[in-house]
Structures
1.
Amino acid sequence: MANFAISDIHGCNKSFLALLKKLNLRKGDTLYLLGDLINKGPDSIGVLNTVLELIRNKIDVKPLKGNHEQMLIDVIRIGQPKINPFVRKMLNLEKESAIPEHLLEWISQWPYFYENDHFVFVHAGLNFEIENVFDDLKSMVYIRDNTIMPEKIDHRRLIHGHTPQTVLSTQKQIDNMKPAINIDGGCVMYRSKKLAHLMALDLDFLHLIVQPNIDHQPKAKLSKEVSSQL
């Protein structure tokens, strides 16, 4: 069975679908989604529905919270009526659209990290300044600059997102056997000439599969090949 990780989709569902087509996931494959599935991009609900469709197709999807999911959950806890405008903005909902309570409940249940024998998966990173790095949940969704101490995670590699970087920078982390691999290609930053990519990391071969952002391009500029993937 194949194993992949993707981070920081940020509502770019067309780009997400195009990348998934390249992965050719099959029943029993595992897909880690490292947070920030929502907000900023044009179709957060579409991304969530795509994930649910993967689950219905027996893909072992493991979504975890990013800082944007955390912000959504924090606002939900405040209660009505202040919640509605913020939730609608984060999920790209029109004023007349009903807030999908089942999706909010589902997101609130996502964990902050996953781990297996070879990797630790988290959205932003870990706080290596404390004895048990898994005690600091806030750092898992918000931290940016930290010094990796591999011995604190049993010398497994840390796979994360949160801080946008170029595909070349991620490839260098893989090639140079860095203890952490950042797979946030800044997909939603479509105006950037260096970013605006969604990356999937093949965890079995440490190979990158890359999809440029196609969500913010006018439909007339989409090639027939790309359009057929949507």
Note: The CA atoms of residues 71 and 90 lie 9 Å apart.
2.
Amino acid sequence: MSDLSIKIKICDREYPMRVSAEKEEKVRQAGKALHEKIKHYRERFGIDDKQDLLAMVAFDCLVEKLECESGQTGDVDFLLRKLNQLNGLASKALP
């Protein structure tokens, strides 16, 4: 399978990329999400400097990533506690 040539627009600049067909949709979604975040910061805070906009979006994305990671860790811990509780109950119920 060959790579596709696509262009992603970031802060009024087009960036050519080569991506696999399987990743094309994700890359385009990421480009669209990036555009929306940039637009949000531009409108909400009146930031016009492209470097500042990109820095704020990068920071925001990392905070979201860390929140997701900590949330997943909490879910795993919760599931492990529940499984241990169920294991304990099963051990008591079985002779």
Note: Helices lie at 21-45, 50-93.
3.
Amino acid sequence: MPVIDAHQHFWDRRNTQFDYTWQDAEPLAPICRNFMPPDLQPHLVHAGVDYTVFVQTQHNLAENRWILGLADNYPFIVGVVGWVDLASPAVADQLAEFKDHDKFVGIRHIVQDEPNDDFIIRPDILRGLKVLQKQGIPYDLLFYVKHLRHAATVARHVPDLPLVIDHLSKPRIKDHAIDDWLPYLKTAAECDNVYCKLSGMITEADWRKWTADDLKPYVHAALDAFGPERCMYGSDWPVCELAGTYQQVYEAINTALGPISDRERAMIFGETAVNFYNLTLPE
């Protein structure tokens, strides 16, 4: 099974269609520049990663079009998780433009930034998720810990919709906090349609002093709750560059996983992503 990075981004700050002002805060200066496929390719080669899944950064249909165009030109991009307005009565019409593209594999909304902590369980959003369920389009849950209590509620409302928790729901690794997070993760894992990305962890740790040991309790908790068949590796590049290189992320996840079997490793680093997103890999 090829190695797949199930969570990475691109952005082009020259593109005036898109809003990248969130990057303007001083701590984010290292990622306040363009990150494009030729920038990622050397990291993939060095780490031995074969393919990637792009995940949206904009609440803008134009980003779907832009990235699908990039994916047509860069075969290592095998999946695009885009965006549609789940609250819109026209959500099915928005999906119609993209759903037949073989690399359009999912939808995400940046729920963590919504002022309403209950955004994901609003009736109009749940109605939009039902449209995704009907059309068989997976959904990425981008939560903070405070939102994780909703994961099981959503999963039970749309039991046939594949859901994946991005970045383990951002546990407070820097504070070594686990008790405010683990019970809700376990409850989410009781729902068979919920998966988990082993991604985005080093930026939740101490950016300057983190080690793989800091990640281990969270990685092991996710693996115990979901099993390797529902866990997948993601780099969260280039956001990860705030705290470490692509190679450091890849090595840290491998180290934190510890002595798992080759079969389990193959699932986490490829097979789970293929199954969840129904990816089509090049011949």
Note: The beta strands are 4-8, 51-55, 77-82, 104-109, 139-141, 163-165, 194-198, 231-233.
4.
Amino acid sequence: MSSATDRLKRLFRPGSIVRATAVLAGGTAAGQAIVALAGPIISRLYSLSDWGVMGTFATIFSTLSPLVCLRYELSLSLPEQERRANGLLVVSLACSVLVALATLVAFVLGGHWLAQTMHAPTLDKFLWIMPVSLLGTGIYTAFSYWAIRHREFSLVAKTKLIQGSAQAACQVGLGFLRWGTVGLVTGDVLGRVGGASNIGFLAWRRSKEHGF
């Protein structure tokens, strides 16, 4: 029994991959659990038409979101020099801005056509939120990879918990206020970008320490 306990202690020692994975998985699971627990309440606060628009919105978002940083965030862990990593962070953030602006232009020009094509005529009223959500997601994603580079796993886990809490609280609160689809979409956006300020502040502080 003692040898098994010792092995577990070694596996979960500070700085180990197993411990880091457990922290990240735990934070993600806790955030998702909060949303799941709030699900029965949220499902009764919104109509089927609200959920239909939300589903279409989420489908479009899930198609565009993997491209928001143009995958530059995946390379943040590669450079040995901190200055190069910071440069890649800036590139990732810049790509997020450009993709968000391009999406905004596309929706201004073709949002009505897209809504009609997807059989969600009220969708075009909410498409303007999509670039905001993409920008926030890009910022959060870039800073998350940057934080993982610096082994700030607990911070990333904390932001996952913040995201779940923000989404559930916003959708429940706005549901009671009868905000309809706006409440669902706003909660979804907050759930995706919540916690970005914490990681952003850490990145700014670390970059100052390295003279970037």
Note: The longest helix spans residues 82-117.
